[in-house]
Amino acid sequence: MASIDIVPGPADIVRAESVWSKIRYHAAAHPLGVVGAAIMAVFVFAAIFADLITSYDPIKTNSLITLVQPSHAHWLGTDQMGRDIYSRIVYGARISLAVGLGSTFLGCVFGVALGLASGYIGGWVDLVIQRIVDVLQSVPLLVLALVMAAALGPALDNTILAIAIPLIPYTARVIRSNTLTLREQPFVEAARAVGMSEFRIAVRHVLPNTLAPLIVIATAQLGAAILTEASLSFLGLGVPEPHPSWGRMLSESAAEYMHTAPWLVIFPGVAISLAVFGTNLFGDALRDILDPRLRN
Amino acid sequence: MGTKFVALATAILASLTLCNANAAEPKHGGILKIYHRETPPSLSIHEEATFSVNAPAMAIFNNLIVYDQHKPQTSIDTIVPELATSWAWDKANTALTFKLREGVKWHDGVPFTAKDVKCTFDLLQGKGQDKFRKNPRKDWYEFVSDVSTNGDFEVSFHLKRPQPSLLAMLASGYTPIYPCHVPAAQMRTHPIGTGPFKFVEMKQNESIKLVKNPDYWKKGLPYLDGIEYTIIKNRATAVLAFVAGKVDMTFPTEMTVALEKDIKSEDPTAICEIKPINVNTNLIVNLEAPPFNNWELRKAMMLSLDRKALIDIILQGQGDQGGSLLPPPEGVWGLPPDILKTIPGYGDVKKDRDEARAIMTKLGYSADKPLKIKVSTRNLATYRDPAVVLIDQLKQIYIDAELDPVESSSWFAKVARKDYSVGLNLTGNGIDDPDQAFYENYSCGSERNYTHYCNKDLEKLFDQQSAETDLAKRKKLVWEIDKKIQEDGARPILFHARTGTCWKPYVKNMTIESNSAYNGYRYEDIWLDK
Amino acid sequence: MGSYLIRRFFLMLLTLFGISVLVFTMLRVVPGNIADILFDAAGMIDTAEKGKLETELGLDKPIVVQYAHWIGGLAHGDLGYSYVSEKPALQEILPRIPITAKLAGLALTFAILFGVPLGVISAVKQNSGLDYVLRVISLSGLSMPAFWLGLLILMAFVKFFGTIPIYTDPPHGFWNNLWLYSVPAAAVGFRSSALVMRLTRSSMLEVLRQDYIRTARAKGASDSTVNYHHALRNAILPVVTVIGLEAAFLMGGLIVTETVFNIPGVGRFLVEAIRWRDYPIVQNLVMFIAVVAVSINFLVDLLYAVLDPRIKYS
Predict the structure, then answer these.
(1) In CA terms, which of B190, B445, B491, C292 is 20 to 30 Å from C235?
(2) What is the DSSP letter of B255?
(3) CB contact at 8 A, B230 and B247
(4) How many CB pairs below 8 Å do chains A and B form together?
(5) Which residue of B has its CA nearest to A253?
(6) Is A137 within 8 Å of chain B by CB?
(7) How many CB atoms lie within 10 A of CB B308?
(8) Do B385 and A81 lie within an 8 Å CB cutoff?
(9) Is A237 within a domain?
(10) Which of C47, C63, C93 lies at the terminal end of a domain, its last residue?
(11) What is the reported pTM?
(12) What does pLDDT average to over chain A?
C-alpha cells in the first residue's frame, strides 16, 4: 500500500498513455477505490468459483449439526437447519450479484431509453416522460419495490424486475440532462449538417457520450439494488428459499436466533454491508475519474 | 436507566414471590400483559379460524359447556357446564337438551336467554336473517337438524343421527354463544359477550385491550382488572420484550425450543411449557397429476421420509411422529406407537430409502436423470422451513425438487383447485376429535380433501365411528381408519409439532392445554401475585 | 417567479394524479384481494360466499368505477373504510402519522447534527487521515441494511443494559418519547447522516475552490472565518436539497426499522395493509406519502430560490 503516498505530478499525467498505466495512475490517486475494487473482485471471485472454495452444499440440511458455533469445520457456523453459513454466503454472492447486476442493467436500459428520448426529442414526449419519471420518483423506492414484488410473486427474476423499476427514474433524469447539453454540441450540429438521421445521431453520437455518467450511476445503483433485495427478503418477499440469498438468511427465522446464535445474524449482514461498501468505494473513485464536474 | 431499575426490581420481586407461591390466596387486581403475534382479522370467533382470534377473544365470551380450563388434556370427560347448568341426551341419542343459567347479563346489560343460543346456531347454520361474512365451521353442525327453545332457559339440539362428538364441538373455544340483539357485523368490530372480560379496543399493529366485567355471573371472578395484548410481529423482538419484563407472558404456543432456551438463559425464573398444539405438517400429493397418479412413485416418496430428522431440524426434537390424529399420551385418539411402526415409511430410514431408490430405478430415474418437481407451499416460515428439509430428503431418491412459495392469500384456493403436484401443508385441529379430522380432510367430496383421496368403504367407517357411543369401541374403529389412511398415503403426516409458552412466575393458575391450541383462554381465574 | 410557481403547482397536481393511477392499478394487479385473504385466513374456499363479500365491498365493479369512487370520495374528504378493521380509513391512518413523523424528525435531526459538521471537517482537512476515516465511516453508513443495524443495536442493548427501547405502550412525556424514539431514529438516521456528510463535503470542497474564497483568503481573513462564514453558507445550498429529498426517501428505512423496533407507525401499517390487500388503507397511505414527498420537493425548490438569488425562473 506504499502507493498511497505517491502524489501524481504533471509528469505522471504525461506518461499515462497505455491503459495499464492509466489504471495505475488512477489507482495511485484513489487508494480507497482500489480497496473497493479489491472487495468487489473477492465477491465476484466467490460467485464464479463458489463450487471450488466451499466444501458443503449450501442447501443440504443436516439434523446433527444445527446451530454449530463458528469452528474449524464450519468457519462461520451453521444455521438452524444445519446448513454451513460460509458456503451459503459464498453461494449467496451469486444471488446478490445476479439481483444487483440484473436489476441495475434493466433499470439502466429503460432509464437510458427514456432519458435519451426525453432529452433528445423534447416537446410533448419530454413532458410525458418527465411526468412518468416524476410519478415513479415520488413513491419511495422500497414501497414501490414492495408492491411490485407482491404483484409479481417471489422468484429470482421477479425480484430483479421489482427492484429494477424504481431505479429507472434517476437514470432517466441524469441521462436527460446530459442529452440536453450534448444536443447543442458542435459535433451533433455537424452530424446533422451532413444529413445523418436524428435516430442515428442520438444513438451513434449522443449515447456514447452519456456512458461516463451512466457507469457512475450504475455502480451506485448496484449497491442500492443489493440493499433493496435484502430489505425485501427481510419483509418476506424477494428471492425464495432454499436459494441462499443474503437478505433471506437474515429474515424471520434467523432473526429469532439473534441471541442464541448471533452468527446467523452477524455474518450475512457483514457480507451485504461489505459488498455494498466495496461497490460504493469503487463507485466513488469511478465518479471522480469519469465525471470531472464532480471531481474534488 | 429507570427501566433497568424496574426490571431489576421486578426480577427480585419475582424471585421473592416464588418462595411462597403455594401458600398464597388468589389476589384481585392487576393487568395481565401478553404479547400477540399479529393483528387478528377481527375478534368475532365464529367468523375466524386462527387461535390469534381465540386467544384474546375467548375471555369475552362463554359457551354452553366448556373444557375444564385447568385440565391440560381436553376430552369428552373434561367438559364442565358454563352457560348451561346441565345437559342430557334422549334415549335415541338424537336430542341433546341443555338447562340454562338464569341471571346472566350481556356486557351491555341485556339479559341472556335461550333465544341467544338459538340465534347463535341459526347464524352458524345460515338460517337466520343476519348473516356472517365468513362461516368457516358451518360443517361442524352438519348433523344438527334444528335447535329449539323451551321457555327462556331450556334449549334442545335435534340431530339427524347420533353424534357424541357434538359435545366436543360445543365445548370448544370456537363455539361461544353470541347475543341475539347485536348484529354479526358489530361482533367483528366491537364484540359483546357474557364472559369475564369486556372488549375495550383493538388497534391494528398496536394492542388489544380487555377490561374486567364487574357483573360476571361467576361471583368473585375474574381476579384480573384487565388483559392487554401488545402486538409484536417479530418473535425475536417479542422475546426481548418478555425478558425485559414489558409483558408477563408470551403469546400462547409461539415459542420454539431455541427461543425458550433463550428465555430461560436470560430469565431463569420464567416458567415455560412445551406441549403439542395438535397441528400437523403433512405432504400433499395431487393423485390426479401425472406422474403422481402412479402409486409406486407415491410409495417411494413415502419411504424417502426421515421423520426424526425433520423433527430434529425443524423443532429441535420437540415433535411427535403420528397419524392424522394427535398421538398419545397427549392425544386422545392417535395411533399408538406399536401400530404406527407397521406403516411403511415409519420404520428403518436406511432400509426404506434403499427400497425407495429401487422403485425409482425401476421407474427409470437415477442420480443423473432425476425426476424434476416443484414443491408448493405457503410463503410463511412455518411452511417453508419443513419444505426445505423435505426437498433435501427427496433428493436422496432421485427427486430434484424446487421450492415454489405461494403467496399466503392464494394458498388454500390453489390447493383446492388442485393446481399443484406436490405440496407441503399444515393442518390444525380445533379440537382433538376424529369426526372433525376425518370428514374434513379425507371424505370424498370435501373441499378440504386436497389430495382427492377417496375410499367409499372407509367413509362408511367414518359414519360408524361417529355414531358410536361406546368410547372403547369407537377408539378401535378410529385406529383402524387412521392406519388405513396412512398406509394409502392419502396425506403423509410428517410430524405433529410441539411449541412453548412462557410466563413470569407471578402469573398464577395458568394452564396450557396439551392437545389443542384453541380452547384454553377463558382466563377468568388467572391472578397476579405481585 | 409567480408564473413559475403556478406552473410548478400544476405539474405537482399532475404528478399526484399519475401516482393515484399507478398505485390504484398496481394494487389490483397484485394477486388476491381482501376476500381471498380473509377466506384463506379462515381456511375457507367457498367461492359463492366470497363473491358475496366482493360485492359488499364493491370489488366486483369495473376498475374505472372503483377509481372514480375513490377519487370522488377523496374530494369530499371521505377516504373510505378499512376492509380489515371496518373503521374509517382516516381514523386508522391519522393517529399513526405523528408516530412516524416523530421518528423521521429525530432521524433527520440526527442526520444534520452529525452530517453537516463532520462533512465540513472532512472537507477542510481534505486527504488527511481524519478525512479518510470519516469518509469510510460515512460510506459504511450507506452500505448497511437499516434493519440489520437495528437488530445489532437491539442485541447490543440487551447485552449491555438488559433492556430495550421497544414500543409496547404509547410513551408519555418528553423524556419517555425521546428514549423510545431516539434509538430507532439513530438506526435510520445513520444512513441519512452519511449522505448529508458526503454531500456537505463535496459541496464544501467545490466552494472552497471558488474565486471569492481565494479573494477572502488573500484579503487576510482567518481560516475559520473563511471556512465557516463564507464557504459553509454557500455550500449548504445543495445540502438543503438532499435533506429535502432524503426526508421522502427516509420512508424506506422507516418501514423496516418500525418492524424491527415494533413501532406502530405509518411504515409498518403500510406493509400490513399491503399484505391484507386493504386497498383503502394502501391507496390513501401511499397518496399521503407521495403528497408529503412532492410537497417537500416543492418547498425545497422554493427555499432554493429564496436562498440563492442567482437562480432565475422562467
Answers:
(1) C292
(2) B
(3) yes
(4) 72
(5) B381
(6) no
(7) 14
(8) yes
(9) yes
(10) C93
(11) 0.85
(12) 82
Q: Is B203 within 8 Å of C269 when comparing Cβ atoms?
A: no
Domain assignment present for residue C282? The answer is yes
- CA B55, B57, B61, B65 dihedral sign is negative
CB contact under 8 A, C147 and A250: yes
Q: What is the DSSP letter of B84?
A: E
Which residues of chain B neighbour A60 with C-beta distances below 8 Å? 392
Please indicate whether, in this complex, the C-beta atoms of A252 and B381 are within 8 angstroms of each other: yes
Measuring CA to CA, which residue among A222, A203, A196, A26 is closest to residue A117? A203
How would you label C236-274 residue by residue, b for 16+ Cβ within 10 Å and e otherwise?
Answer: bebbbbbbbbbbbbbbbbbbbbbbbbbbbbbbbbbbbbb
3-state secondary structure of A71: coil
Nearest to B232 among C85, C262, C272 (CB): C262
User: Do you find a cis peptide bond into B81, omega within 30 degrees of 0?
Assistant: no
Residues of A in contact with B309 (CB under 8 A): 61, 63
Q: Which residues contact A174 (CB under 8 A, 6 or more apart)?
A: A115, A213, A214, A217
What whole-number distance in Å separates Cα of residue C14 and Cα of residue C18? Answer: 6
Asked whether residue C29 is domain-assigned, the answer is yes
Task: Note whether C19 contacts A: Cβ–Cβ < 8 A.
Answer: yes
Q: C-alpha cell of A205?
A: 453520437
Would you list the domain boundaries of chain B?
Answer: 55-184, 276-497
Q: Is C284 helix (H, G, I), strand (E, B) or coil?
A: helix
Q: Are B444 and B456 in contact (CB under 8 A)?
A: yes
Q: Which domain holds residue C262?
A: 97-307
Q: Do C19 and A277 touch (CB under 8 A)?
A: no
Characterize the bridge pairing of strands B84-89 and B79-81. Answer: unpaired
What are the chain C neighbours of A259 within 8 Å (beta carbons)?
Answer: 155, 158
Neighbours of chain A (3+ CB pairs under 8 A): B, C
Q: And the C-alpha cell for C237?
A: 445550498
List, for chain B, all residue ranges whose pLDDT scores fall below the cut of 70: 1-24, 409
Distance CA C80, CA C74 (A): 8
Alpha carbon separation from B153 to B159, B208, C265 (Å, rounded): 20, 33, 49
pLDDT class of A234 with cuts at 50, 70, 90 = confident
Residue C35: predicted pLDDT = 83
Residue A17's pLDDT is: 62
**Coil, strand or helix: which one is B329?**
coil
| Mutation choice for A interface testing from B35, B263, B389 by most A CBs within 10 A | B389
Encode pLDDT of C124-145 as tens digits. 888 888 998 998 888 888 899 8
In the numeric block, the cell 440493499 is attached to A227
Contact criterion met (CB < 8 Å) for B262 and A67 = no
The total domain count for chain C is 2
Compare CB distances from C289 to A143, A230, A274 and report the shortest one's residue. A143
Q: For residue range A202-218, what is the model confidence (pLDDT) as tens digits?
A: 888 888 888 888 888 88
DSSP conformation letters of C80-96: -B-TTT-SBHHHHHGGG
Q: How many CB pairs under 8 A join A and C?
A: 138
Please report residues of B whose CB lies closer than 8 A to that of C36.
409-410, 413
A223/C142 touch (CB, cutoff 8 Å), yes or no: yes
CATH architecture of structural domain B55-184: Alpha-Beta Complex (3.90)
Which residue type occupies B521? Answer: Y
- Tell me which chains share at least 3 CB pairs under 8 Å with chain B: A, C
More confident residue, B364 or C209: B364
Nearest-CA distance from C72 to chain A in Å?
21
Superfamily of the domain at B276-497? Dipeptide-binding Protein; Domain 3 (3.10.105.10)
- Cβ <8 Å between C142 and A132: no
Using a CB-CB cut-off of 8 Å, the residues of chain A touching B266 are 259
For residue C269, the chain A residue with the least C-alpha distance is A143
| Residue B228: φ, ψ to 5° | -125, 130
Rounded CA gap, A189 and A197, in Å?
12
